[in-house]
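Internal tracking record. Fields below are filled automatically when a chain is submitted to the structure queue. Please do not edit lines marked as system-generated. If the sequence contains nonstandard residues, flag them in the REMARKS field before resubmitting.
Queue: standard
Priority: normal
Entity type: single polypeptide chain
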Amino acid sequence: MKLAVKELEQKAKAAKAASKKLAFLSTEIKNKALLNIAEALIKGQDKILAANKVDYEQAKASGMNEAMLDRLMLSPSRLEAMSQDVKTVAALPDPVGEIFEMRTLANGLQIGKKRVPLGVIGAIYESRPNVTIDISSLCFKAGNAVILRGGKEAINSNTALARAAQQSCLEAGMPDGTIQFIESTERALVNHMLQMKGIIDLIIPRGGAGLIKLISENATMPVVTGGIGVCHTYVDKSADLNKATAIVYNAKVQRPTVCNALDCVLVHKQIAKDYLPSIAKEWAKANVEIHCDERAMAILNSIPSLKLTPATDEDWGKEFLSLTAAIRVVDSLDEALEHIERYGSGHSEAIITEDYSAAMRFLNEVDAACVYANASTRFTDGAQFGLGAEIGISTQKFHARGPMALKEVTSYKWIIFGSGQVRP
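SYSTEM-GENERATED OUTPUT FOLLOWS
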């Protein structure tokens, strides 16, 4: 353990030193490093996938559930998507040094804000090896050094990815220490990392509720939390039913193991008899298990080949992360809003409606990071928002909310130009 702590402290100090240089590094060098990484993911895919296969087989043998296995798995198509995301980050404007909100005061002072890096960002994450590349890319493009501490279940995948990224950065002329990867998987290191307030400026946890709770309660530096997504879609009485079926199917089935996948459908009573059989039959093609309230069950229980089960209190507010969804029939938009307020996690919520007033009321009143009208919640993603990638999806309100990308890992300082002014 002493050796692991020593490794962490040495790498953290190196990251701090690198952050001082990164703050003033040219966009050209940073973009070159990003393009190197994008290329390395494709050229080195055989080695990366072999490392991932070791992790996947060990995790499966240990009894890891399907949702976590899906998050752990890499494939040629996923590596290609990661590579494209990195290229997108390279193509985005460099936020560092941006001057904004500049104005001239009555006394002649010119005052405004200049965007600056945060410094050193610590990432503690589970299962998802793509986080290694996403966080690294966004952090150093925004002038930050990063310390990566992944979980033991993905240690081989993360090591292969981190080494590819580190080599790519060095070849581009980035400061040594820009990306620090902690190879020890000893759990005690997390607690030690959370006490490094003087070196690490921000901690970002990516994982389950237990990890996020541990970090939120023990970190001595600011923490951005999120990732727990209990996502609802409300099908209003004025909804286009074909549109509603396609959206709700996509939100549940396209990739059910992620935080922006649908968990619960709320359906207005006036269209429930027409709509519920439609979505249930489509879901049945994907083998979705449906947890129904009494009114939904009464409508669906005569249809063959559906996987139905009576909903319990535990089904409301539950993040399923699987091909399972809950359905509740509601009397009104008001009841849908009350349900979401009670059971939502502040992640992503949607309404399907052709009534403009209902849509705007939903967008205005639902308190979540991302609120949709007539679209799938599966779009809550940095790449889908045109941000290249994301460091995480924040469900808190300070300092960032929703998908976190380049600007969300910067701060600003006030800059003031004078011509001899003194305060009277």
